[in-house]
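seq:
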Amino acid sequence: MTSPLPPAPQAVLALLRAPDRADWLGPLRPWITLCSRGVDPQEAWRQLRR
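struct:
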């Protein structure tokens, strides 16, 4: 039987909520999400441009 995970320390939660400055994919993330859901890449781009 597994025990529940202990609550995360506040410092860890703050890091998880903070934007990752090294995340070069950031601006493209919505487009990639649509593409991974099966939307045609060109259509996904059109949807995001609107």
